[in-house]
Target: Cyclic pyranopterin monophosphate synthase
Amino acid sequence: MSNDSRHLSHLNSAGEAHMVDVGDKALTQRIAIASGRIHMQAETLNMIAEGTHAKGDVLAVARIAGIMAAKKTAELVPLCHPLALTHVSVELSPDHTNHWVSCQARTETRDQTGVEMEALTAVQIALLTIYDMCKAVDRGMQIDAVRLLEKSGGRSGHWTADGQP
Model:
C-alpha cells in the first residue's frame, strides 16, 4: 500500500480539506465488515434478550437503525462520498457471559471507493440505538471495540484486521 499523501489524504495541495477525487478509479465490488459491542448490566441484557423492554424489540430497532445509518453515512461524515449500497446487514448478538451485545455490520457496493465508513457507521448507530432505548434502566452502558475487521476491493485489495481469519 502506498503512503502517497496525494492519494490518501483529504487535504489538497494548499493543505485545505476537500473531498478526494475518485473519478479515475475503476468500479469494483467493495465489501467492508466492522464490529463493536455495548456492555450493560445483566438485568438490562436479560430484558433485551427476553423482549420485555417497554419500548419493544430493542435488537430489531437497533438493526434497522444501523442499516438506515449506513445509507446516510455521507450525510453524517464530512467529505465521505455518497455510495449506492448494494447490501447492508447488521447482526446483533447478546452475550450473557460478558453482559454485552456485539454488533457486526457488512456493507457492499460496486463503486469507485470503499464502504468502510458505512460499516463503521452502521455499527455505531446500532449500538447507540440500544443505549438510547435502554438508558432509562442502565445509564452505565459502555460502547467499545468499534473497529474495521475486513475490507476488500479497490486498489488496496483485501485487508483483514490482526487476529481475524
About this structure: Residues 1-6 have pLDDT under 50 and may be disordered. The two ends are 20 Å apart (CA to CA). Residues 74 and 82 are 5 Å apart (CA to CA).
